[in-house]
Write a structure and sequence with these properties.
The structure holds 2 protein chains of 2 kinds. By secondary structure, chain A is mainly α. Chain A contains 9 helices and no strands. Chain A has one domain (38-91, 112-240). Chain A is extended. Chain B is elongated. Chain B has 4 helices and no strands. By secondary structure, chain B is mostly helical. In chain B, helix 1 (2-23) packs antiparallel against helix 2 (27-47) and helix 2 (27-47) runs antiparallel to helix 3. Chain B has one domain. Classes of the chains: A mainly alpha, B mainly alpha. The interface between A and B is medium-sized, with 23 and 15 residues.
Chain lengths: 247, 97
């Protein structure tokens, strides 16, 4: 009885708080942001990104500049996911595990057909080029660091599944990933030291629609692109090369 | 009008693929169903003027996620029921010992 009373009181308190919160939100009103409705935050972004920042792609301006700290968090989440995957899959194999691997060994060692291998060889440099294009032009055209990085990772995936002996250079990957992450944080700290807030953009922005414009935004997106590409490639490499350790 | 018809057909295929990938017992086909969902979603995002999201969905949803699931299936078991039976038997033998 006493427990039920506490539960009812708690439900009442939560219900009261929710009612107070939701009564302050003007539900049903037209809050879709546009340039005609200058009070909304999207109108602020739409006005500010071409005029002050000289960035044609407003989404890039939001992701890298206005919400740059969130993007740093996203990159960290991806990094932690890759680290967790590596630590799970590189565990010590017991006897049961070795039996499993023997059982699946014949499937893992099948070579791909020559059609797949030739196609992969032709498509791989084109995919790399497309990915690099997407993240270098992130402030001008749709796409950016995450998209370009994912495209590059699909290119590496194509090579990894077509050629059995294809291996990524782990040292280069680790260095690239670490330097890209450090570069992102370093740009943030530069903003903090030079302009007073983390990831603050520079005053110099160039002209709208130029390749070198938008201050630090293209540089940050290049770092993000390299980081995402190396991380996703590492994830795929780990997944495709699950092997027992030699004792 | 033609665009609307196209969208309606695509939406029906989307829902059908979603139901297919839930119901299907063969995990490989279920994963391919999720790939179809991502493909149609990326077309939708492009039509709804969100090209950034469309590129992300195309690269990650269609290619990477599907391939990671297929690699996982290759390293485990393809049939859902067989996997469950194997697990149940494994626990049974451990208890008996």
């Amino acid at each position: 009885m006493f427990k039920k009373l506490i539960v009812f009181i708690l439900i009442g308190v939560i219900g009261y708080m929710l009612t107070v919160t939701f009564s302050n939100i003007p539900l049903g009103e037209n809050r879709i942001g546009s340039l005609d409705n200058p009070e909304t935050v999207s109108a602020f972004y739409l006005n500010k990104s071409p005029q002050d920042l000289k960035v044609a792609n407003t989404i890039t301006a939001i992701v890298v500049n206005f919400r740059g700290f969130d993007t740093l968090g996203e990159v960290t989440v991806l990094f932690l996911a890759a680290t967790g995957l590596a630590s799970i899959l590189y565990r010590k194999e017991d006897e049961e595990e070795e039996e499993n691997i023997k059982h699946f060994a014949h499937r893992l060692n099948l070579p791909s057909s020559s059609l797949v291998r030739t196609g992969a060889k032709i498509l791989f440099p084109l995919l790399l080029l497309l990915g690099i294009y997407v993240f270098i032009h992130g402030h001008l055209t749709p796409g950016g660091g995450f998209q370009g990085g994912a495209i590059i990772a699909t290119g590496f995936l194509l090579m990894l599944i077509s050629y059995k002996g294809f291996q990524t250079n782990h040292k280069v990957m680790v260095w690239l990933e670490s330097l890209a992450g450090l570069g992102f944080v370093g740009i943030g700290l530069y903003g903090l030291i030079a302009y007073g807030s983390f990831l603050q953009n520079t005053g110099w922005t160039g002209n709208l629609n130029d390749l070198i414009s938008g201050g630090l935004i293209p540089l940050i997106y290049i770092f993000i692109g390299i980081k995402v590409a190396t991380e996703l490639t590492n994830v795929l490499d780990i997944l495709l090369n699950i092997k027992p350790r030699k004792k | 009008m033609a665009l609307l018809l196209f969208l309606i057909v695509m939406a029906i295929i989307l829902i059908a693929a979603a139901i297919f990938s839930i119901v299907q017992k063969d995990l490989l086909f279920a994963v391919l169903g999720t790939g179809v969902i991502s493909l149609i979603l990326s077309i939708f995002f492009y039509i709804l003027q969100a090209p950034d999201v469309a590129i992300t969905e195309a690269a990650i949803g269609i290619a990477l996620t599907t391939i990671i699931f297929i690699i996982t299936i290759r390293n485990t078991t393809r049939d859902e029921n067989k996997y469950n039976d194997d697990h149940i038997n494994k626990f049974k033998t451990k208890k008996d010992v």
